[in-house]
Amino acid sequence: MPSYTHSDETIEATFVANVEMVDFGVPGSPVWPEVIPETIEIQTLEILGVDVDPTKLPTDLYSAILDLADEGEFE
Q: 37, exposed or middle or buried, with CB in 10 Å at 0-12, 13-18, 19+?
């Protein structure tokens, strides 16, 4: 499962997601993995040096942190 870690002076969050293999729809075209946005979730979270259980966050805060996943590349 690919992951991406966002890290700044306040938050370190590791995100995981499922991928699907996509192509151009033409025989012989290259195939590559693409993240399924609906499957992105927070795997680990640290705020101001404190480990936080992401499942305990208010919905709005969880969504705001989840938006950080858009900044990076899943590998």
A: exposed
